[in-house]
Amino acid sequence: MVVTAALAILASTVWAIHQDVYKYPLDVTVYHGAMNWFWNHDRPLYDFHAGTGLEPLGFVYPPFAAVFLAPLSFFELSPMATTLFTQASLGALALFMWWLVTPLVKRTGWNKVYVWALATAGAFALGPVYRTVELGQINLFLVAFVVADFMLLARGSRWAGIGIGIAAAIKLTPALFVVYLLVTCRWRATIMAAATAASATLVGFLLMPRASWLYFSEYMSDTTRLSIGQRINNQSLAGLVARVNDTPQASQLAWLALAVPVALFALWRAQRAQRSGAELTGFSIVGLATCLVSPISWVHHLVWVVPALIVVVIAAVHATHLFHRLMWATVALGTFVLFSTRLEAYGDYPPFPAWTAERWIGTNAFLIGMILLILFLPSTPDSTPDHGTALAARSSDTPRHSTVGPLKRDELRENRTRFWFSRSITADVAAICSRSLHVHWTNLRIRRAAPAPHGHHTEDSRT
After folding, report:
1. Hey, where are the domains in the chain?
2. Close Cβ partners of 54 (under 8 Å, ≥ 6 residues apart)
C-alpha cells in the first residue's frame, strides 16, 4: 500500500509539474487572485475579476468558500503552489475512491490496493475528473466531503452529516444531500448537516458581513455572473433550455419547470434505493441530480458520474444471470466511453450552426447520460460488513446500543416514510380498514368455534 501510494504521488507530481511548465490551471489562478485580493489587500471579494479572453472570471462561490481557500493567499502564484493544489485534489480523488471501492472489494474478495489503483486510474480518464484536475477546480474536494458522510452513515457514526454540511457551505448544490438525509429519515444526520452548513455560513458572515449580504441577497440568483448559460459546456437543464430558446441564459420559469420535477423524482428514487440497502446508489442519484438542476454545470462539475459508474460495476459483478452480467457490463463500458469523450467538436460558444438530430444528441450527450443513469441506476444492496443493509438502514438518531434491532429500525423508518413516498392516503386507509376487518372476522370465528365454559353462556349462544 505504501509503495503504491508513493508511486502514485510521484507520477502525479511529474504530471502536475509538466502541466505547469506550460500554463497555470485557470481556476487555480482565479482562486489565488481572489484570495490575494481579499485576504492580503482587504478588497471586496466579489469585485475581483480575472481578465480572460471571452469573459471575465470572478469569485462565484459563497463566502465560506473564501475561508476554505484562504491558504492560497499564503503563497505566490507559482508552479510549486499550483502543483500542491493539484496534489491535494488528486489526494481527495484517491481518498474517496478508496472508500467507494470498499463494497466491491468486500463482495468479490479482490485485492483492495489493486482494485483501488485501477479504479482511480479509470476515474482519472473520465472527462469530468481530468478537466477538474487540469483546470484546478474544487469538485473532487466536495465529492470527498460527501462520500465521507456515506462512510459515516454506513458505520452508524454520530458525526454523519458534517461532510455534507461543509460541502453545502462551500458550494450550494450539495445542499440537496441534506434533503436526501431528511427524506430517508436520518434525523440526526440531517440536523448535523444543516447545523454544520449554517455554522460555516455564519463564520462567513462574521468574517465578511458585507460580502455575505451581497452574495445571499443578490449574487446567488444572478446567473449572468457565472457565464453564458447557453454554452455547450453547460450540461445542466438550464443549459438545455437556453440552447432550445437560443438565449444567453435560460428562462427561470422554464428551468424551474424542469428542475423541480427532476429533483423530486431523483429524491424519490434515491429514497427507494436507500431503503433497499443501496446507499451508494442513493448518493449517486442525488449527486447526478445536483448537476442537472444547477443553473450552470460545466463538464468538470459532473464528477458524480464516478460513484454512479462504480454502482453499475457492482451490479455487473453481483448479477447471477449471464445476461444481466453482460448487460450491466455493457452499460458500464458505455458510460465510461461516453464520459471519457469531449464536447469541443461541437464548439462551445454561440452562435451555433444549424441544429440537426445528430448535433442535438451530441451537444447534450452528458445531460442525456445523467438522466438515463438517474432513471435506471441499479439498486444493488451494499451487502458487506461495512456497507450492509442493516448498517445502511441504521437511523443515526437511534443510540448505538439501542435494543431495537436493525430490521426493526428499518421497518419503523419504512412506516414513517410510506405516507409521503410509497403509498397514497386512500391506499393507506383502505389497507388499514382491510386489516381491521380481517382481524375482527378472525376473532369472531375463534369465539364461535371455542366451547363455552360449563354453566356460562356466551353472547352468541344466548337466544
Report:
1. 2-390, 407-450
2. 349
